[in-house]
């Protein structure tokens, strides 16, 4: 029986949203191969496995490695545990989330298994018994198609790409021992960003501002619109990050983050090729710009040509009204 | 302090990408190649560390075609001391193959630090740095935005979603550098002149066939033609209506 190992991700004992995406993608692949899905949870004792409903997302089994040493990300021990399981379990594929943690972890697993890695994958399939993957390269300016000629196929999945459905599998929980190896890089502390602040790469709605805002202090328009949408994150173009108006953590584009939110609102962003590369996979793109020839309008589903200092306050008001109504 | 900086020659990020006739590679004619943007932070960090230590050596290592010598010279112009080109006709798509070639070169180099850029702007793998760390069995911290080194030990900050991880490690170590770590310098005229005379060692490398095959490269799917809803604040009502009724995102 072919099995797929889906490596989930938790922080502070709660499984992250991307975990269900990884399990769901594993489920789709397992169904094509006629196989099963094992979801792996690495964390401290008491990690909330039930709350995330991994069975609902498609896990036949949930393997839990609960160890005090796994409360925070422990690079070498995480990698050794996953690699050990992958070797022992005869998995056809090992799937990790391409998050900050997963991008650090997956290459380490690759070395320990001595297999290639397909990073930041946006599509997975089985074709004639072989696993294929598609992934953006050149920051999304092209899509690369890959085939794994050997196994296990190790991939990291881009977050916010796989829309999770309902699988309704058993999700029976089994405890698995941890593999603790000497950790050479020790995570001593995790400093959370300000309370309730959403990361631009994870948010469902992103409101981003560019040079059209003319000064750092005008960014409150972007923040206010993000608030009006409810749970939206603030993004920024490279120009305004380089100018020091906003932190790099908010930068969207080829030298920043690649985002795939449901809604991306670009305010005063002209749409340089390197910015478009970072947000073109958003489901819906809205642009407000005073230059009707700005390239951002070529990418946008809906555009308003106009002075953002007039348009955005009205937009904030209308969005609030729409959400209240 | 002896520091290796692993760099890569990549197409300028403003370049349009055209797919070659073979259907798996990019047309290189007319494309401007540059030092990978994130590698600028790695080179800068190495130079600052050398300056702070009051001595040492910064060695740039790259895997690529003959033309990657230009990329090494770019790092020379900034202040790197010497270069090693692991010469291959093409950089394999399999990051592990690249990491093994680099690790073999770095293993006996007695480096205190091995620095990488966080991600290559072309393949976007973000994998070679941590793979080299594992292959060399060295501490490795990825996507570093802040770094302190004191008496053979280091503390690094790395950005994670909605926060920062503080990571401690002992030297020697492998680090991948993120934007925010420092402000890369521009080459000075003196550096550009000196760059011509600095030595580059060229070592050919070959690769066995990888079990990961690139079978296609294609343009991203076109976005559906968008529309200008209108001009000025008067168009906001219609936009919100569309977001709600047509796009169903409100």
Explain the overall architecture.
The complex is a heterodimer of chains A (325) and B (250). By secondary structure, chain A is of the alpha/beta class. Chain A has two domains: 3-175, HUPs (Rossmann fold, 3-Layer(aba) Sandwich); 205-324, TPP-binding domain (Rossmann fold), CATH 3.40.50. Helices cover 27% and strands 29% of the residues of chain A. In chain A, the strands form four sheets. Chain A has a seven-stranded parallel β-sheet with strand order 7-11-6-1-4-5-12, sandwiched between helices. In chain A, strand 9 (130-137) and strand 10 (142-148) form a beta hairpin. Chain B folds into two domains: 2-204, Rossmann fold; 225-250, no CATH class. Chain B has helices at residues 37-53, 68-78, 95-106, 128-135, 189-195, 236-245, and strands at residues 2-7, 9-11, 33-35, 57-64, 82-87, 113-117, 140-150, 153-160, 163-170, 173-177, 200-204, 212-218, 227-231. At the A-B interface, helix 3, strand 7, strand 9, strand 10 and strand 13 of A face helix 3, helix 4, strand 7, strand 8 and strand 9 of B.
- CATH evolutionary superfamily of the largest domain in chain B: HUPs
The CATH superfamily of the largest domain in chain A bears the name: HUPs
What gross morphology of chain B would you assign? globular
Cα-to-Cα separation, first versus last residue of chain B: 56 Å
CATH class of the largest domain in chain A: Alpha Beta
Radius of gyration of chain B: 21 Å
């Amino acid at each position: 029986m072919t099995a797929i190992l889906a490596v989930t991700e938790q922080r502070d004992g709660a499984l992250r949203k991307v975990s269900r995406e990884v399990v769901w993608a594993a489920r789709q692949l397992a169904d094509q191969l006629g196989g099963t899905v094992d979801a792996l949870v690495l964390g401290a004792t008491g990690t909330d496995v039930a709350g995330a409903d991994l069975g609902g997302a498609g896990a036949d089994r949930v393997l839990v490695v609960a160890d005090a040493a796994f409360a925070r990300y422990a690079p070498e021990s995480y990698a050794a545990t996953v690699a050990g399981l992958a070797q022992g379990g005869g998995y056809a594929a090992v799937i990790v989330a391409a998050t900050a943690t997963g991008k650090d972890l997956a290459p380490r697993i690759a070395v320990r298994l001595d297999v290639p890695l397909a990073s930041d994958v946006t599509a997975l399939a089985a074709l004639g018994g072989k696993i294929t993957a598609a992934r953006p390269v050149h920051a999304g300016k092209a899509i690369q198609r890959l085939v794994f000629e050997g196994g296990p196929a190790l991939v990291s999945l881009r977050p916010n790409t796989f829309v999770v459905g309902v699988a309704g599998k058993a999700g029976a929980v089994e405890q698995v021992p941890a593999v603790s190896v000497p950790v050479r890089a020790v995570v001593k502390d995790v400093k959370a960003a300000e309370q309730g602040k959403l990361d631009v790469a994870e948010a469902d709605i992103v409101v981003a501002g560019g040079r059209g805002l003319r000064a750092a202090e005008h960014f409150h328009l972007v923040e206010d619109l993000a608030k009006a949408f409810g749970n939206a994150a603030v993004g920024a173009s490279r120009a305004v990050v380089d100018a020091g108006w906003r932190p790099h953590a908010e930068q969207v584009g080829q030298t920043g983050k690649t985002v795939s939110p449901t809604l991306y609102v670009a305010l005063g962003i002209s749409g340089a090729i390197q910015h478009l590369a970072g947000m073109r996979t958003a489901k819906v793109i809205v642009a407000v710009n005073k230059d009707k020839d700005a390239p951002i309008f070529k990418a946008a589903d809906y555009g308003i040509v106009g002075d953002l200092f007039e348009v955005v306050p009205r937009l904030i008001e209308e969005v609030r009204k729409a959400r209240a109504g | 302090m002896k520091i290796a900086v692993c760099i890569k020659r990549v197409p300028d990020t403003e370049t349009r990408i055209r797919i070659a006739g073979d259907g798996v590679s990019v047309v290189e004619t007319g494309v401007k190649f540059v030092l990978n943007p994130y590698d600028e932070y790695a080179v800068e960090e190495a130079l600052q560390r050398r300056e702070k230590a009051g001595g040492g050596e910064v060695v740039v290592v790259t895997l690529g075609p003959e033309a990657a010598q230009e990329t090494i010279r770019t790092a020379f112009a900034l202040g790197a001391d010497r270069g090693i080109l692991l010469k291959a006709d093409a950089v394999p798509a399999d990051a592990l193959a690249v990491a093994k070639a680099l690790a073999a070169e770095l293993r006996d180099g007695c480096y205190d630090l091995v620095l990488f850029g966080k991600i290559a702007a072309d393949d976007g793998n973000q994998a070679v740095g941590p793979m080299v760390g594992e292959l060399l069995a060295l501490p490795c911290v990825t996507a570093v935005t802040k770094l302190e080194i004191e008496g053979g030990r280091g503390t690094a900050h790395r950005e994670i979603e909605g926060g920062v991880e503080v990571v401690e490690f002992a030297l020697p170590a492998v680090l991948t550098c993120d934007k925010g770590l420092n402000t890369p310098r521009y080459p000075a005229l003196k550096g550009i002149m000196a760059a011509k005379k600095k030595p580059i060692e060229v070592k050919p490398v070959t690769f066995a066939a990888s079990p990961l095959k690139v079978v296609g490269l294609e343009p991203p799917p076109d976005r559906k033609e968008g529309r200008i809803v209108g001009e000025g604040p008067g168009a906001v009502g219609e936009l919100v209506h569309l977001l709600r009724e047509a796009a169903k995102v409100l």
